[in-house]
Design brief:
Blueprint (H helix, E strand, L loop, with lengths): L2 H40 L2 H44 L14 H32 L7 H14 L3 H16 L4 H23 L9 H25 L16 H33 L3 H37 L3 H28 L1 H5 L8 H33 L3 H26 L3 H36 L1
Helix pairs in contact: 1-2, 1-6, 1-9, 1-10, 2-3, 2-4, 2-5, 2-8, 2-9, 3-4, 3-5, 3-8, 4-7, 5-7, 6-7, 8-9, 8-13, 8-14, 9-10, 9-12, 10-12, 12-14, 13-14
């Protein structure tokens, strides 16, 4: 076997060891929102549209909050790599994070991430309610907005335990111990489905809440999964000594560093999520059927996207570790391996979308609702191509995070999404009369532009890192 292929396979196995449990965890997590979406659809097209609008707002704020604490995983991974390098006697670089490999430094990173999560969760909950009242001024159906408001009130508090969970998750992943995440998230799917059912229909001692019951179930599930992950980490002999809840002991310098790294990541995630949110609002202006079709297909895209998230996180942490010990060639190979894995999965998904679209869409629509179903079938064909670029741009963001180039990713998304994608969506959706299909083609254009620019910046960043080390 050629040496290059041998290295590629070895890199693939190493990447997969972390990416597979992360991707499965992401897929398990998205099963929560998929279950919610399916149950919304059972309540009718208006409920699906209202619930979809609520989820758009929630996901926008949740995603930005997650971005604030995402950098802690890279910081922990780099510190752990340098500690291992020191123990083996291999020379290591100082890295770009400035974090030593001592236990107290890692412990302080955990405290800082939990403090950031708390502040972001409170701010996000308030904003969620305010945005929910404001969307009626953006052309949304008043009946849909009225139906969404109670669900907004019940989902908003769930942002706080959701972000606590993410902070602890980044710590466990940075320490390369993500296995408990999958078990906990899988269990939460069954809990979420059960709570949804009893809170929607009023089974046993629970009140009949209808659509708002889904929002309450979501908040309860986030609280339970956070407690479960914390308990699991406390039982791990390697993680327990480092998991501190004493957020008042956070070093100001650590908080500033994480905030400095996390703010551009939050802005990057927010830029992407905001782009999708604006697209949803544009689609909503075409009516309830269009928003319902968009919600269903967007949920399918979101499901597949989780595979890229797993690959992105694994590649990002791998780049942080390799650059911490100045292994530039391995960092470059991680990019190639992650993209190849993503492309293989996307090709299979595209084939399924093209050959059995009605089977894919069946869980989301009543068979009598032909308008929304037919539109969703057409959107699936666009999604089949769109997902290649969507996954590539997410991997690109992760690769730049491995370089600690969090600001660069944000600037690229501003160009790709807002200067290219949004004008393209408006032009193709409204000026050409292609409506929802045109907006999705604009979405595809923005993602393709972003993916190209991110990979180009990563290649330049690795080259600059090597040049700085040689001088």
């Amino acid at each position: 076997m050629p040496p290059a292929l041998t290295r590629l396979l070895a890199d693939g196995r190493a990447l997969g060891a972390l990416a597979v449990p992360l991707a499965l965890t992401q897929l398990a997590q998205v099963a929560l929102t998929t279950t919610d979406t399916v149950m919304m659809g059972l309540l009718g097209t208006e409920a699906l549209a209202a619930g979809g609008l609520t989820m758009v707002i929630f996901n926008q704020l949740r995603t930005m909050g997650v971005g604030l604490v995402t950098a802690v995983g890279n910081q922990v991974a780099a510190a752990d790599a340098r500690a291992e390098s020191d123990a083996s006697g291999t020379p290591a670089t100082s890295g770009t994070s400035g974090t030593s490999g001592t236990e107290e430094d890692v412990r302080d990173l955990v405290r800082a991430s939990l403090l950031l999560s708390t502040l972001a969760g409170i701010a996000g909950a308030v904003l969620m309610v305010l945005i929910g009242h404001a969307v009626i001024w953006l052309g949304q159906d008043p009946d849909v907005v009225d139906a969404a408001e109670p669900m907004l009130y019940l989902m908003a508090p769930g942002l706080i335990p959701c972000l606590w969970f993410q902070a602890i998750r980044q710590f466990t992943v940075g320490m390369r111990r993500p296995q408990a995440l999958l078990r906990i998230t899988l269990a939460s799917i069954a809990v979420n489905a059960g709570l949804n059912w009893v809170l929607i229909h009023g089974t046993w001692i629970f009140p009949k809440l209808g659509l708002p019951g889904i929002g309450l179930a979501t908040s309860l599930v986030y609280a339970l999964t956070c407690l479960a992950l914390y308990a699991s980490a406390r039982r791990d002999p390697r993680l327990a000594p480092l998991l501190s809840l004493s957020i008042w002991k956070t070093r100001p310098a650590t908080l500033r560093r994480l905030f400095g790294l996390g703010t551009p990541i939050a802005a990057t995630y927010g830029s992407e999520a905001g782009f999708f949110s604006v697209v949803a609002l544009l689609v909503g202006s075409f009516g309830t059927a269009a928003l319902a079709a968009h919600t269903a297909v967007n949920q399918l895209v979101y499901i597949v996207f989780q595979i890229a998230v797993g690959l992105s996180h694994a590649a990002s942490l791998g780049v942080s570790r390799e650059l911490a010990v100045n292994n530039l060639a391995a960092a470059r190979r991680l990019k190639t391996t992650a993209l190849a894995c993503a492309a293989a999965v996307m090709a299979i998904v595209a084939l399924v979308y093209a050959t059995v679209p009605h089977l894919v869409l069946a869980p989301f629509f009543d068979t009598d609702d032909q308008t929304a179903t037919n539109l969703a079938t057409k959107l699936l064909l666009v999604a089949a191509i769109l997902q290649f670029f969507d996954c590539t741009q997410n991997i690109g963001v992760g690769l730049l995070r491995g370089l600690d180039d969090t600001k660069g990713g944000f600037r690229v998304t501003l160009v790709g999404y807002w200067l290219v994608g949004l004008p393209a969506a408006a032009l193709l959706g409204f000026a050409t009369g292609w409506d929802t299909i045109g907006i999705w083609l604009g979405l595809l254009t923005g993602l393709a532009t972003t993916a190209t620019l991110l990979l180009r910046r990563f290649n330049q960043g690795v080259g600059s890192h090597g040049a700085s080390r040689s001088t």
